[in-house]
Fold each of these.
Amino acid sequence: MESTLHYPVITGDTEKLKRNAEILTALAGRHGVEIAGVVKGCCGSPETAYAFTAGGCAQIADSRVQNLRRLRRCGISCPLWLLRIPMPSEAEETIRYADLSLNSSGEVLELLSRAAVKAGKIHQVLLMVDLGDRREGVQPGELEDLFRYAESLPGIYAAGIGTNLTCYGGIIPDEENMGLLVDLAKKLERDLRRKLRYVSAGNSSAVKMLLEGRLPAGLNHLRCGESLLLGRETCDGGRIPGMSYDAFTLTAEVVESTVKPSFPAGTMQRNAFGERPQIPDLGVRNRLLLGIGRADVNCGGITPRRNGIRILGASSDHLIADVEDCPMHFHVGDTVDFDLEYGSLLGAMLSPYVEKRWLPPVAARDFPEWKILRTPLSADASFRSFRRVPGKSFFSALTGSCGTCRSLRMIAPEVEKCLDRRIRPLLWGGSHRIALELARGISARFHHCGWLMFSAYSDFNTKGSGALTSEGMTLSAICGKTVISEALEHPVPEENVVLIGLRSIDPQEKLRLQHSGIQVFTMEEIDRYGMSDIMDRALKYLNGINTLVIDFSMNILDPEYTGAENAPPCGITLREGFCALEIAFDSGKLIGAALSEIPDNETARKNAAALTRALLGKKILR
């Protein structure tokens, strides 16, 4: 289901972002400098991270653990850096989602050490030194003591040193402070008798020195956000040759187009924001009112792309623009495009009222048809495929025979063929193993899908942990925690998995699941809150992922609806199953599905077919 575009909207062009990264990383590479692509200006958007890594960025960095978690869920596999000192309350999450964090506090380093030891990990740290901007960092004379202390902590590896300039005090990088950073690095290497992996010179404000060839030798790393996003260095705002400064477009809709006096009438006091407006009297002017305001974006940091439009001011929800000198005549419903400065880009990305869109889009709506693939374990060999017929209200008929996979090894290649032809695959069979093969095929084309699993069991065992058959290891194999037949090239990250309907689990499996990143909603929660609420929570959890896979095992149903003799009692009702799959379809994100563990009896086949119709969009009135 394709959603209607709402305004205001911000559109990011991933090809331009990728090209920006290619230009900057190539320039930096000639000087022996790596670039970490900073995505905090886009609220940690996976689309931006993919563009930056495709353009050559060595790491992706953000200042929020929540964004790093989302990036991992969306399949970003390169090193992730946490750009600020971790808060004590997020030490365990930092260890889980960040490969490296910036630090200058001994107390925080100790907490990270405890969390790393508990998780059985080695966490890298970049130790920060204050070279004049007066934000984070120890004084230069204290750096070696902090470094030695970090090295003494178990689970911590001091990978290098860094500094940050411009962000708070406005201090720009120059030969003196950058030279001091190099001298500090050389002294540490000499005293510690080892090389530092990173000597990180700072952010986009250091790009000017890089462009001019003035960055001292010995500095091998930069953390760049604004230069990649907006194509400019931040020391004096100059544009970087060849890079795009218009990768992001803010679009607002005209809600009023009128002619009125420019100067307010009546007694003037403070406005809604406590300001005393300074409004010139320009006479009667053509004016626009746009449906965007301070609740959406910093209106002082946006610039209309069309000549002759001048922003006069903004309230919470409206922006007032003078268009007297614009040759275009605007009507209600027309739109106006804006360029953004960094602060406005950040605000718009954070605002829940601004819709986000990415070009070129990769979405499930580009796959208009479904095709059912029979498997060797299918309970009904005569089942046929559904196809959506354009212009008709429902899936016209069970048209044509669906494909048949005579072995499990055939499933993944057939899934890939479907996706290559813009057809969404739906596997129909008796074993949950088909879900693993579905994952194998889909992950070859989509590396960051969400996995929505409905099952009475978690199937999260590994060899030697209680699994009696490969059936009990299916989800574990999908997540890359064990191997059945052969390893997945692109496992589904645990943080991308939501398991709904769990009601039977082995003790060892329970412990593994509790320490995983999988979001679980048990039958207890379905009973208490209802399936509709659980589905809303599940989709909200997977909100940052554009494509979803449904893994529906019939054992989630109460045995009354399947006739299964060995299934645990007290499962969901058939109507709850319809509700879950209807809501999943309405998300507009489905790219594939598996309906498995279908018992070989007429009741199960009939109900599986009805559930399939719900999954493919069948509604009561259509």
Amino acid sequence: MATKKEKELTLEQVLWNCRVDLRGYGSFEKNRDAVIGLAFLKFASDKFEKRRKEIIEEHGNVPAFLEKVSFYNSKNVYYLDEHCRWSYFVKEAGSNDIAVKLDKAMKDIEDKNPPLKGALPQNIYASLGVSKEKMKSLIDDVNMINEERFHEEDLIGRVYEYFLQNYAASASKDDGEFYTPACVVQLIAELIEPYDGIVYDPCCGSGGMFVQSMKFVDSHKGNRNKVTVMGQESNPDTWRLAKMNLSIRGIACDLGDKNASTFTDDQHKDKTVQYIMANPPFNLKNWRGEDELLDDPRFKPYKPAMPPKANANYAWILHMLSKLDVNRGIAGFLLANGALNAGSGSDDEDDEGGQAQYLIRKKILEGDKVEAIIALPRDMFYTTDIAVTLWILNNNKKAGSLNGRNLRDRTGEVLFIDLRQWNENIEEYTIDKGKKKKKTVFNESQIEKVKEIYNNWQSVECTNSDNYNEPELYRSVKLSEIKKKNYTLIPSKYIEFIDQDLNINFDEEMSRIQKEMINIMKSEKESQKLLEESFKEIGYEIK
């Protein structure tokens, strides 16, 4: 029974307390995994107990049915032995060996449920060195997270996003690269519309792109069974987080047999996909050896240009293009702004790497793969303030129908959108030790506005794309104009930005200023006259 004080706590306060319980003990990564691991155990147990009640209602309290693993797995529920259930840990919370029991439970859950192999934190609770009192406090706090107290439509999602987001906000640059702001992921999903087919992410982090693709399907009354998710992640800790994050939400996924580099150990060779959603590491260095991958089929068509070893931006682009279905593949991904202009008269124009990126971008544009370029506001990400752009690549820009919309032929056109001035919506996040961070976010109406601009441009009703523009926001541009600008993709090179100084009528402005000066001088003379008269009254004359 929850106390009155417990009932008054908000969900965010409870989750914050979970983080505070481990402050001063393990490393950033260990504390993150320990808290998220317990949240997983709580939710997995809740689903297990709910399914167990259903089995009793269907078959009676018969051990042969209650302990049959397939009866749980068929409903996307993990079977848990008694010593792995949350109720057991609530009862044992104050015991001296609670950390050891948690480590054993995580191992046994993986062994019993093959899809979770490699997903759960292993051997970390005992290594944290947390007192039994603190561990009990953490278990008690996690125990407060339930649907009866917090009537959230997606409580699992809220809890996982809170921990992933706030641990990312507390992290260093390298630590926090696995989390992409939810509003940005939502924008990508709304633009590429992953209703059916395979959604792929070559650097999936904690799986946020896949979660949002399913949310998109749900919000638009689609069918989850028509969508398959497939991805890869090189960081072992983040790969585990992704498996945990997706499995607790009931999202089946193929993340490969292990964590591995997409470039040197592609876990999904020769597979094609209909959708790609990605946020590759910005300006990744040393992604290949000096002479490595030179004849790789993903890059060979663009030779003699080869993505430089010092920057993987174009390696990601070519890898994603190699995966896209040639008839209907569409990709939405984020890259640092340097990719828009590398080699096009920029500082690195004479640099071999810059020239290679330029030549690849030129070939991609001439192959008519680029559909839209969207500049995002700064300060949207947790571990960097680098300027970032959303790219939309499309293998089919021909006329046709898509999801109930009639599309026109957009070959030879690119839509540029500049959202850098959309920086008025600020959210504040509490990070470790009470410090605050502020980040720019998109609200629902802004996401809908971008989708409207994009969809209207695609539509057959856009009969004059030459004039499809709004100053300082968007513009449709022909490939011929992009060629004249040396294949740069910087939106501000094409979108009209109004110089407010140039709109001034100088004659009228000078007349206004002169009138103001005359009035000021007249006022000063009147004040001087009043002052002189006042002094005369007291017998003092100003000379």
Amino acid sequence: MDNSYRYFKRDISWLSFNYRVLLEAEDESLPVFERIKFLSIYSSNLEEFYEIRVADHRGVILKKKYSDESITEAEEALDAINREVSRQQNEYYRIFSEVMRALDRQNIYLYQTETPLGFHREFIHTYFNEEVFPFLQPVMISKGDIRTFIRDNRLYLVIRMTKKAHKNTSWLVPPEYQYAIMKIPYAKVPRIVELPEHEGKYYMMFIDDIIKANLPEIFPGYAIDSCYSIKISRDADIYIEDETGNLVEKLLKKLKKRKIGALSRFMYDRNMPADFLAFICDTFSISPDDLVLGGRYLNLQDLAKLPNPVGKSLTAPPLTPIRVNYLDETVSVFRVVKKKDVLLHFPYQSFDYLIRFLMEAAFDPKVEEIKITQYRVAENSAVINTLVSGAQNGKKVTVFVELKARFDEEQNLLTAERMKNAGIKIIYSIPGLKVHAKVAVILRKGPKDGKRKRNFAYLSTGNFNEKTARIYSDMALLTSDPALIDDVNRVFSILEGHRENTGFTHLLVAQFNMVPCLLEKIEREITHVKAGKKGRIILKMNGLHDQAMIDALYRASENGVEIELIVRGICCLVPEQPYSQNIRITRLVDMFLEHARVWYFHNDGQEEVYLSSADWMKRNLNRRIETAFPVLDPVNRQEIVDLLDIQLRDNTKACFIDARLRNCFKRDDNPVKTRAQVAIYEYLKRKQETTGETAG
């Protein structure tokens, strides 16, 4: 339906978020290795963006089955993306240079364009001959010959040279260029090599430059004209048209082809001469639309591996996970959860409590069955180990494995096979849907006195992944509430193929009642305002893209509902419009990745708070199984409201998003500076120290 509402373009909104990540690298108040970390994260994010989103637009253009309108939209999207990325790349290399100067001030020198000092040249030469040269495979290239395949996300050097002139060669004859391509052997040597320390100063060098410095030894008989870095990004998305039949077999076939997908980006050193670039593009059939300017160094996500010879003084001190006294003092997590719901905050509090919960289920003789979803798990996962233990102890263990979790497909296949071998029942993906819910249920034997048996459930905004739980900010609930557990059981019944019993009491579940209930709650706030009461909504999520939900928020704003959005990534809602005057968008980027989804509705003082696995994206609300669960305990609910308030008070790391999609840092006159993630840690720590709660 046509309306006058505006929406930001999804891809440009995401690029605005990634630019905010880059701005962290510009923050001089951060230790230099924290700034380097954000340079790396920005590059890694952009790589995935090209492998998925840009590749998707390219696919629309290249395949002939789409309408002219769709092709035009894809072309316009790519044009807008390339303009914005080019702008950001200029900013990236400016900030990169600033960070390198900050590194210099710490007596750590990363050689770049300058010639290495004399005391390093012998080391570089020896290192090249002993550690690098045996693994190089240079290939001469020329138009019309069989072309070398350029692999996805690998760093290559392209070299231009001439044969060394014979004595009788006239200087009037123009040189005849020869070209070669050579993959940097990233699996055999580090990207950044530590050189010998000298007079208390530390030196490093990109492996690219070590190779460049020794090119004459690789190409004897040639005079090296120039050498530049290139890389290609390819379509890494996996789309299976028919998900019926043997999905595992189909997925394995697709995984083998991931690295040879269609080209989505050709990135090159901006200093490469135009005629050199033209030769490379012509030889490898690269379209001008695929070109993206880079700098001298590409694949700068590798900065995450930059050696730190000084140590902790150049990094941010880690926040030690807070211990929860009443859980530490008990021998049984179940005993605590029987008495009350337990709300956990990762990484502020330890993820060990989930492992203890699952381990107790694996060994408790009263436990009959364990059911859990798997979307992304850590390598050598402690979570998987507890499930294997449960199966070995005679429990019936069922794991729903989402094979289509992007970039984790192979890991999920491996862990599924291991669990299957341990006797665990594995349920694979639902055709046409992704299961993104993060839930588990523990079913126990009923007591002999006929009382209702006490089962347990775990519901979370984040994955069962102890690795990401150290850097992703998420919330989780341990509960024995019978109504919540009945709802979780209904979710697993759906995953097992039974869709008839979907009368959820508390849970909101995408594909069933989530969207209607959310629209109803937004409409309820409008009704309260029309009755002269207060209407307020706070929505924290990673992405807001679904147009129907945005329209509902616009209508609520037009009717006077106060709306606070805390959206880390994509946000297609446009603020500062006549219909969005009551909506404010806050973006938080800091040391932890804001990952929790929290939905607050004032409800005329009868506050409702939901935690969820779902963003308000089209895919989450329409093509996934997601869950949102209410926080029923008033103490836990108030705790979450307090944390939302802290985030909205942030005047250090928070940005407002304006009508031009700019990240406008929130600066106010308040002498008290609030950095939300640090303040949340102190809040939880202080609450733990002052409540004096015990296990009982």
